[in-house]
Design goal:
single chain, binds N-carbamoyl-L-aspartate, four-stranded parallel sheet, 10 helices, five-stranded parallel sheet, about 300 residues, alpha/beta, about 35% helix, about 15% strand
């Protein structure tokens, strides 16, 4: 792979190949400690992050690479002095062998790629895309189910501004017999363009109004936080909260995923339930990012 701007570039085959590499790395990380030797990666975050940034940094170090970091690019980089993203990239591409970046612009990764001489890896762009999160989401689902085909996926929370679901829907669409259900407050419903996208892939999208509308044999309950930093006004808190009583209306095969951070949408009373997999999901992020960095910078 030469870069990762969005999820459009994946075929089922290329995605599976990357997930298989992530599985190998997860099983034997000690075999991959020299992959990024002599490589310098720029890690540039213009929006807050804990998991994505730290797991990228851990991934780089575990692969033997070095990094240069702006962890609060909006305040601490020259963006504060009015420098454009494009100018920043035109400089960083002289210092680093790849640029991992998060930015509030929906088109940030594409704009950066237009001027960059080194690979751009999108670590979150506005409300549009979060491809590495989608990779670790499908990796987690595959590990639990054995396959992604036939997955019954429910997406919950902020389906309008949440970039993680927007990217996940694209990756899950590569598989067969997928069904998607959406449960959110009306202010946060999935935009029509994604419903149209699913339908162009032959995938049925069902809008639900309560937990009762979801099939009991759901495979994945993928909840998300209301992205209050992305809109003006106050639409209140999440209405659809997964707690023990709600989770127990589904079967044992249901897995609860969340990109984190959570607010009130997942109650801590399910944290010890084996179906609650969000911390394992966060752990998987590091291995998937190791696989991606190796693929882009050191080949297969
Ligand atoms: C998500 C993001 O940044 O889009 N976080 C993450 O990367 N795990 C979700 C969120 O912030 O709600």
């Amino acid at each position: 792979m030469d870069k990762l701007l969005d999820c459009k570039k994946f075929t089922k085959e290329s995605l599976m190949e990357l997930l298989e590499l992530a599985s190998k790395i997860k099983a034997h990380p000690e075999n991959y400690t020299e992959e990024l030797k002599n490589k310098v990666i720029a890690v540039m975050f213009f929006e807050p992050s804990t998991r994505t940034r730290m797991s990228f940094e851990a991934a780089i170090q575990r692969l033997g690479g070095k990094m240069i970091v702006t962890e609060n690019g909006k305040e601490n980089s020259s963006a504060r002095k009015g420098e454009t993203l494009e100018d920043t990239i035109r400089v960083l591409d002289k210092y680093a062998d790849a640029i991992v970046m998060r930015h509030s612009r929906d088109d940030a990764a594409i704009a950066a790629d237009k001027v960059s001489r080194v690979p751009i890896i999108n670590a979150g762009s506005g409300k549009a895309e979060h491809p590495t999160q989608a990779l670790l989401d499908v990796f987690t689902i595959m590990n639990k189910r054995g396959s992604l085909d036939g997955t019954k996926l429910a997406i919950l929370g902020d389906l309008k501004y949440g970039r993680t679901t927007h990217s996940l829907l694209q990756l899950i669409s590569l598989f067969d017999n997928i069904e998607v259900f959406g449960l959110s407050k009306k202010e946060f419903m999935l935009p029509q363009e994604y419903i149209d996208y699913l339908s162009s892939k032959g995938i049925k999208y069902t809008v639900c109004e309560s937990f009762d509308d979801l099939p009991r044999d759901i495979d994945v309950l993928y909840h998300t936080r209301i992205q209050s930093e992305r809109f003006e006004g106050d639409f209140g808190k999440e209405e659809f909260i997964i707690n023990k009583a709600v989770l127990d209306t589904f079967t044992d095969k249901a897995m609860v995923l969340h990109p984190l951070p959570r607010n009130e949408e997942i109650s801590t009373d399910i944290d010890d339930d084996p179906r609650a997999m969000y911390f394992e999901q966060a752990e998987n992020g590091m291995y998937v990012r190791m696989a991606l960095l190796k693929d882009i910078l050191a080949g297969k």
